[in-house]
Please model this.
Amino acid sequence: MIAVNQVLNHVKHWVKEVGQIQKENLGKKNLLIETKSNEYDLVTEVDKLSEEYFIKAIKEEYPDHCILSEESGEYENNGSPYRWIIDPLDGTTNYAQGLPIFSISVALQQNNETILGVVYLPMLDLLFEAVRGQKAFVNGRKIMVGNKENLKECLLATGFPYDQATNTDNNTNYFSHFVPRSRGIRRLGSAAYDLANVASGVFDAYWELNLSIWDVAAGILLVEEAGGKVIRLENKRGISIIAGNDTLSQLIYRDIQSM
Ligand code: IPD
Ligand code: CA
Ligand code: CA
Model:
């Protein structure tokens, strides 16, 4: 059995170290930026540097664990029940522009169930953490999802997929639907931070289509441990989710399914 709270201490140390690298390089002139799946999907040298740190640290501390990390993919599965899921820099478009809204997302799964999740905001020094069954916290303070049930009083968040130009199922229809029905909608550009904000009740609810496991693994655990509900839209591509309290998640789910 793994001592999960001990693992958490390692993760907290790692995210702060990587956060420091990201802070120091934010706004750097001549930041190396490349495109990935299409011209909207970016990766910077800092994403890669951050990922290298995590992979080295995990391999040193837990050499028999599997790792799935956004930029370099899956490390050989050696049969270990433990798998790390890492988004070394969530919010790359913001980062490449010098916008200080981005996060680091680290999750640990045991037999495909997330048992630990950390989302760290380097510029705000906000550390969101959850261990399955032990509630969710930000900087040591317990957090809970919001309790509103009327959309008109709710601040929502969403995002748009990188294939927005070529796939018409790009969330603009749902966005238009919820704009007049809610207090407001934010698009921060970091799915992990969006989910952390739902967990702490800053956002009442969030939905997004076509995400990847590294965007959401830690954030989903935060929301669940904060008493919230995450619903998966099974008929959409990628990982498409709604997060909020139980009532709001169901309500948004019903609206989306009916469109
Ligand atoms: C992206 C961010 C963004 C979301 C995208 C993600 P990245 O991750 O989380 O908010 O809308 O779908 O891919 O590329 O910055 O790690
Ligand atoms: Ca991401
Ligand atoms: Ca990323």
